[in-house]
Structure formats: structure tokens, C-alpha cells
Specification:
Number of domains of chain A: 2
Shape of chain B: globular
Order of helices and strands of chain A: EEEHEEEHHEEEHHEHEHEHEHHEHEHEHE
GO molecular function (chain A): metal ion binding
Bound molecules: nicotinamide-adenine-dinucleotide, zinc ion
Structural class of chain B: alpha+beta
Structural class of chain A: alpha/beta
CATH architecture of the largest domain in chain A: Alpha-Beta Complex
CATH topology of chain B: Alpha-D-Glucose-1,6-Bisphosphate, Chain A, domain 4
CATH superfamily of chain B: START domain
Shape of chain A: globular
Domain Alcohol dehydrogenase-like N-terminal (chain A): 25-154
Distance between the termini of chain A: 11 Å
Strand order of the largest sheet of chain B: 1-7-6-5-4-3-2
Number of strands of chain B: 7
Protein name (chain B): Cyclase
Largest sheet of chain A: 7 strands, mixed
Oligomer: heterodimer
Family (chain B): Belongs to the ribosome association toxin RatA family.
Domain Coenzyme Q-binding protein COQ10 START (chain B): 47-164
Helix content of chain A: 25-40%
Radius of gyration of chain B: 17 Å
């Protein structure tokens, strides 16, 4: 089959690779009909996430048709149309039972789990197409993919809902939702969202549905800010205003009740701390650029809530621990527990309460995926989301 | 191992012996056993299954070949004895007979290798209830002497680099198998571990 493979920093190619096969009884194989490029893929593309190997198949946002089912899988049948969560979860460990699906204790293969156990103290759960830290599983920017524990994750989609309406149940829609849920929104709350990429945009939509009084969105790409505005957010361009001052003034001098970092470890901008981080990342001293997160912690009100869906992988220095402690903040974060939200969000899509298609700017065949990566990275203003069609 | 436990506890309080930063020393001090260069490894894993189920799985030693990475075969000799064939580095195998020396159903199993083993060792595995509703805590502790000769040198090198690595991986696989009925892998079928 054809698949998008990683070969090094900003070097991805569409190669011919062996077809996936059923390995374990609960597996299935899916023929992929739609698959997207994610902001998280850019972290791999830019070489920020360690443990990638040349030839790894990328892609963790995908859906398609079930074409083979393992003998231990009683849930799926041939021909089912499914969306697959990016987190691989066994459904029976302590974490899965407590709906913390991305923390699954069993899905990361035993010998791959060593790496994240050493890095983070305990091993991470498995995920598709996201380095060997999360298991080295082949991803879904491909014609076919093997889905382990496929009686737990995949969501069967009823007829009549086209791919583009449901594809983002795989990652960014529940990620935006969990980011807003982690803000514990109360009536009258102002929520500020850093980053108007797909995750930030869905977080804005979710925060408003979950009852935020106001949402203020921050980015520097006019097109992306416009999309935020169309969802009902007020907007700030961080190149034009002092973000802290603007937020304080807009909230009566108090500050936002909750702040969301939907930027992650490749924060843009030319603030002095960011330039230092970049210089250090180049010489390998620190891995993560945390300018947006520092600003989040600085801007949120006393006793406020900080929600971090943005991805970080390593260490950061000059972390504002003083502001965090002295203001008494609550911080919530994590890879999304996708399966926890699937049913609820699918229903809301069906009822027309959530629109997921507004952010798709480009559609292209899988063969063009390397161009898609380049555009999504270099032309962020216009390229808000790229959907690939492998067949 | 009881003397060992008692001795070490004086130094390390309520932490398990295997977590001592001086575990190499902790294991060795047993005149009655007279280890050449005994090394102790230990590791605890929680398995989301009733204690009795986990004990019974382990008691039927043939099951362990399904979850232990390098075990090629385990032949049952009788209810207490078994013969183990284990893959070693550089395409070799090592073999031993193992005998169960203690069996407290549902709680504890201890075993040791019989005279003439390629890798002399003794081990015990304890099964305890976790906090209510949280499955079974399984603690495996093994003391082994690296064998003499070339295989020994290769093994010693491997284990010295990361003595806990094999126990850690094997216990993860045990947990995966007992909780999900599968052993997770991202490899294609011909490269997959047996499940
Ligand atoms: N937690 C999860 O499970 C999960 C899932 C999906 C994505 N993510 C992460 O969420 C983050 C966003 O993903 P995306 O797909 O929206 O990415 P994206 O790259 O498309 O969007 C990031 C946006 O942040 C903006 N930005 C950069 N620096 C900023 C700053 N200092 N202040 C304000 N805005 C700034 C950029 O202009 C861009 O519009 C990434 O880190 C991604 O890895 C996490
Ligand atoms: Zn994603
Ligand atoms: Zn699990």
C-alpha cells in the first residue's frame, strides 16, 4: 500500500510499504477514506519529538471502512464505517476503567514502554503514528491501518453523516472539548484561548457550549482569528497588542477566569524568553519553547484555571512556578481521553449542535501529503486544516 | 530470603528491598547460600484481576512461556518441577530445572534452580490485594548468579546494563495478557511475541 512516512526533519515521503495485517484477536484492519494532518504532526515534522525512526508511518486522525476483523472482536463487522480515536486503549486496565483512556497501561508494547517510563516516571499509553514513545504504531496517513483493541476505540458512524462531519472525532474535536471541560467553566466566566489552530478553534466552540460568558482568542494569523470571531469569540492579535494588558483591561482588571494553551511546544513570537528557548533548542539544551504557556500563567486571574491541551515533550526552564503558586492556580492537561467523549460528541454533531467542517481549508490526495505538511507549516494563515484522501 | 528481608529492612524502612540503591549488596549477604556474585532484582505490578486468578495463572508454570519474552519452552516434570529453556544472547540457549520450594495458595510462590543450572537463581512472587477494587499487586523478586564462561559474560553484561529490564518487561506482558487477553505489539505478525 501507499503511506506517508517520516524520514527526518521536514522530510516526509509517500512510499510503498507492506500492507498491515491482523496480529492480535481484537485487531481490525481499516481501509482509510479520510485522514487529516494535525498540529501534533508538525512537532514530528519539525523534529521536536524524540524516538522517531526513518520509515515510520504518520497519521493519527483517520476514519474508514472495516475490511478485516480479528476473531476476538465481537463489536465490529465488515463494512462498518468507523472513526478511530488516536489513543489506543485496552478498555480493561485501571486507567481505561476510570475513563483516562490516554493513560492506558497496556497498549504501549512492553519493550517500547521503557522509554517513556524513564522519561516520565511511568509509561505512556499507545497512540497511532506518534513516535516510539507511544508504542511505534503505524499511523493512518495511509491506504490501510491495523487498529489494535478495535473493540474499544472505533466509533461506528451511522449512515448519512459524511466523513468530514465526523473525522475530527478522532482527535481535535474531543481535544478542544476536553480543553474546555478542564476549565471547569462557571456562569459569568471569561475564557482566554491561546492559539487559533484547529484545537484552539474547537476549544472556543466548546467553551461557549459549556457556558462561558465570553471567550477571548489570541493568535497572529488574521484568517485564523477571523474563524475564531465567526464562532463568537473576541479576538486579540499578539503582534499588535500587549496581551496581558489587553486581557486585564477587557476583564475589568481581574484577568480571565480560565486560560487554555492550545499552542504547544512550537510557540511563535519574538518575546525575549522565546528567542532564548529557540537558541537553546538549537544547541540541544532545552527541548520545549514555552512562551505561550508562560503568558497563560501570567495572565490568568488569581485562583484561576489553566488548561493545557498543547503538546509538550521534554523540559522547560524559566517556568513561572512563582506565579502558579502565589496565585493559587489549578492546572489540568493531558493527551485527550478521546473514547470518553466519542458518543456525546457524535450525538451533538448529528443534532447539528457542533459544526466541524468550517475549519477545513484544503483537501488533497494522499500522494500530495508532503505538500500538505509543508503548506500547513509554512502558510498557517490560509491553511487551517488539510484532509487527505487515500483512495 | 527471609533473613535477607529482615536485614535489609533495618536499612530501608518500609520500602521493598529491591528499591535499595545498594541492592547489589543487599542480595548477597547470605552465607548459607554462598552466591558467587548474586544480583537481586524486584518489581511490583498491579493486575486488574482477582488475586486467586493471578496466582493460578502463575502456578501453572507453562503459562509463563506465553508472557516471558526469552523463554523458549517450559516442560513440566511434575507438579513442583519444571525444565526451562531460555534464549540467551548470540543465538545461544541456557537451561535449568526449577523446583517450587514454597506454595501458599493465593499468596506466595517461591522457587529455586536445581544444582547444575546454567543460571543459578532463586525467586519468589507474592500476591497481595490492592486497595479495594484495585486488583492484585504482584511482587516478583529474583536473586541470580550470572553463570561462568562465555555465555555468563554475555549475560552479565546484558544484565549489568539494566538488571531490572527483563523483569519489568515480562511483568508488563503478564499484566497485558491477564487484563486484555493479548500482548500488545506494534510489529507485524511474523515479528510478534507469542500470545
Ligand atoms: N492534548 C492532545 O491530545 C492534543 C491533541 C491534538 C493536538 N494537540 C496539540 O495542540 C496544539 C495545537 O494544535 P493545532 O492542530 O491547533 O496546531 P496549529 O499548529 O495548527 O495551531 C497552533 C496555533 O497557535 C498559534 N500560536 C503560536 N504561538 C502563539 C503564541 N505565542 N500565542 C498565541 N498563539 C500562538 C499559531 O499561530 C497557530 O495558529 C499542538 O501543540 C498540538 O500538538 C494536543
Ligand atoms: Zn492530532
Ligand atoms: Zn487500558
Amino acid at each position: 500500500m501507499r503511506a506517508l512516512t517520516w524520514h527526518g526533519k521536514q522530510d516526509v515521503r509517500v512510499d510503498t510499504v507492506p500492507d498491515p495485517q491482523i496480529v492480535n484477536p481484537r485487531d481490525c484492519i481499516i481501509k482509510i477514506t479520510s485522514t487529516a494532518i494535525c498540529g501534533s504532526d508538525l512537532h514530528l515534522y519539525d523534529g521536536y519529538i524524540p524516538t522517531m525512526q526513518a520509515g515510520d508511518i504518520l497519521g493519527h486522525e483517520f476514519m474508514g471502512e472495516v475490511v478485516e476483523v480479528g476473531h476476538g472482536n465481537a463489536k465490529l463487522k465488515l463494512g462498518d464505517r468507523v472513526v478511530v480515536p488516536f489513543t489506543i486503549s485496552c478498555g480493561s486496565c485501571f486507567f481505561c476503567e476510570h475513563l483516562q483512556f490516554s493513560a492506558c497501561d497496556n497498549s504501549n508494547p512492553a519493550h517500547k514502554a521503557d522509554m517513556s517510563e524513564i522519561a516520565y516516571g511511568y509509561p505512556m499509553g499507545g497512540a497511532f503514528g506518534y513516535s516510539h514513545l507511544t508504542g511505534g504504531y503505524a499511523g493512518g496517513q495511509a491506504e490501510y491501518v491495523r487498529v489494535p483493541y478495535s473493540d474499544v476505540g472505533p466509533i461506528v458512524i451511522p449512515d448519512g453523516l459524511e466523513d468530514e462531519k465526523v473525522l475530527f472525532l478522532s482527535d481535535i474535536l474531543p481535544t478542544g472539548w476536553m480543553a474546555a471541560e478542564n476549565c471547569a467553566i462557571e456562569p459569568g466566566d471569561t475564557v482566554a484561548v491561546w492559539g487559533c489552530g484547529p484545537v484552539g478553534l474547537f476549544a472556543i466552540q466548546s467553551a461557549l457550549i459549556l457556558g462561558a460568558h465570553r471567550v477571548i482568542a489570541i493568535d497572529h494569523h488574521p484568517r485564523r482569528l477571523e474563524l475564531a470571531k465567526s464562532l463568537g469569540a473576541e479576538i486579540l492579535n499578539f503582534e499588535d497588542v500587549d496581551v496581558h494588558e489587553a486581557l486585564a483591561e477587557m476583564t475589568g482588571g481581574i484577568g480571565p477566569d480560565a486560560c487554555i494553551d492550545a499552542v504547544g511546544l512550537e510557540s511563535h513570537g519574538w518575546a525575549i524568553d522565546n528567542v532564548l528557548d529557540m537558541a537553546k533548542a538549537k544547541v540541544g539544551l532545552a527541548t520545549d519553547r514555552t512562551h505561550a504557556l508562560r503568558q497563560v500563567i501570567h495572565c490568568v486571574r488569581k485562583g484561576g484555571r489553566v488548561s493545557i491541551p498543547g503538546v509538550y515533550g521534554g523540559m522547560a526552564d524559566k517556568f513561572p512556578i512563582g506565579a502558579l503558586m502565589e496565585k493559587g492556580l489549578t492546572v489540568k492537561s493531558g493527551q485527550t481521553h478521546v473514547q470518553k467523549y466519542s458518543k456525546q460528541l457524535l450525538e451533538m454533531i448529528g443534532e447539528g449542535k457542533i459544526d466541524t467542517t468550517f475549519l477545513i481549508s484544503h483537501r488533497m490526495p494522499l500522494e500530495k501529503a508532503p505538500d500538505g505538511y509543508k503548506m500547513f507549516k509554512e502558510q498557517q494563515n490560509d491553511v487551517t486544516k488539510v484532509v487527505l484522501k487515500p483512495h | 530470603m527471609t533473613t535477607l528481608d529482615l536485614e535489609a529492612k533495618k536499612e530501608i524502612g518500609d520500602a521493598p528491598v529491591s528499591s535499595s540503591v545498594r541492592s547489589d549488596r543487599a542480595a548477597i549477604d547470605q552465607q548459607d547460600r554462598d552466591w558467587e556474585n548474586g544480583t537481586l532484582v524486584g518489581r511490583t505490578v498491579t493486575i486488574n484481576r482477582p488475586r486467586q486468578d493471578v496466582y493460578l495463572f502463575w502456578r501453572d508454570v507453562a503459562n509463563l512461556a506465553r508472557v516471558m519474552e526469552n523463554v523458549e519452552r517450559i516442560d513440566k516434570i511434575d507438579d513442583r518441577r519444571s525444565h526451562w529453556v531460555v534464549t540467551a544472547p548470540a543465538g545461544r540457549t541456557v537451561e535449568w530445572d526449577s523446583v517450587i520450594t514454597e506454595d501458599d495458595p493465593g499468596r506466595l510462590l517461591a522457587w529455586e534452580s536445581v544444582e547444575g543450572a546454567d543460571v543459578r537463581h532463586t525467586g519468589r512472587v507474592e500476591f497481595r490485594d490492592g486497595p479495594p477494587g484495585r486488583g492484585t499487586e504482584v511482587t516478583a523478586t529474583i536473586v541470580y548468579d550470572a553463570p561462568a564462561g562465555e555465555v555468563g559474560r554475555i549475560l552479565a553484561k546484558l544484565f549489568q546494563k539494566e538488571p531490572k529490564i527483563q523483569a519489568r518487561r515480562d511483568l508488563r506482558r503478564l499484566k497485558q495478557f491477564m487484563e486484555t487477553g493479548e500482548i500488545s505489539t506494534s510489529e507485524p505478525p511474523d515479528a510478534a511475541p507469542r500470545a
